[in-house]
Design a protein that fits this description.
Oligomer: single chain
CATH architecture of the largest domain: Sandwich
Helix content: 40-55%
Distance between the termini: 78 Å
Keywords: DNA-binding, Transcription, Transcription regulation
CATH class of the largest domain: Mainly Beta
Protein name: Helix-turn-helix domain-containing protein
Structural class: alpha+beta
Strand content: 15-25%
CATH superfamily of the largest domain: Jelly Rolls
Strand order of the largest sheet: 1-2-4-5-12-7-10
Order of helices and strands: EEHEEEEHEEEEEEHHHHHHHHHH
CATH topology of the largest domain: Jelly Rolls
Amino acid sequence: MLTGHAPGVSCSTRELVPGDRLAAWQRALSRTYVDVDVTVEHDRPWIGELAAERLGALQIATEEFGPGTILRGARSVAADPRSHILVRRQLEGTALLLQDGRTAELHPGDLAFHDARRPFRIVLAERQRARILMVPRAPLRLEERQLRALTATVVDDAAGGAADLLLPLLDGLVDEVTRATPARREQLARTVVEILATVALERAGGQPESALWERITASVRTRLGESGLTPQDIADQHAISLRYLHRLFQRQGTTVGAWVRTRRLEAAREELARPGAAHRSIAAVAHRWGFTSPSHFSRTFRESYGMSPAQWRRAAGAVQAD
């Protein structure tokens, strides 16, 4: 039985007579993902259960099915123009995903990408459960050659790199999306898509974490003067979770707060040493670089450089205007 309303859909073959199940299940999968053909062994009992919800560019589905085969052949690709990327996260049981001449054998905890623009096959030897995330191609920011190198390769959290950090985070975020308020859901969904893009780029041979680090730190340098700059602001700007932001900085041997404070002090120290800025008071320089309290700025400056801002200005040869 297929039920639901946009943007959600659910299907269960449990209450259908056996002769109606296969057609109903194939319609449900084709409506939820992309056009596919389903085959089952008629002498073996099977039940299909599916629940899906769309949140902006992201669709989250949970599928229980097997034994059987899901095939997107050349005819389906030609008839159905949808070209999304599907990400299969195996939850229970096993699955074989075949695409682009490769076979990914998925066990619980494994993840694999497959591309709806080209034929693929999923072989299920037993009843299993999986979570299927579906996103447009554009947010992954991959070239076609990178996508072809990515499909039907097993991604797990034991291989190191971004996947080691991000796959557990991905599971938690997807669970949180399903429980969050409507106002919060789309923001979380964007974070899930960003994580998928990061994992995909690394698997395809890119350097996603270093690129993300450079993008974040370059952006923060332009915002050092904002006294209200917070880790949550930074995370929201780059569509990542606050927890992931903190982990990125930890992997660099620092914290968000310490990194921002150091960059602010460096910028203030540089300005204090410039003769052209001699007309600005130390309090004005401190405020310009995000310090709301002149006394806190002076204390932090002394702790970092062993002298007060005024002493540094004199030592640098700038005329003090205070």
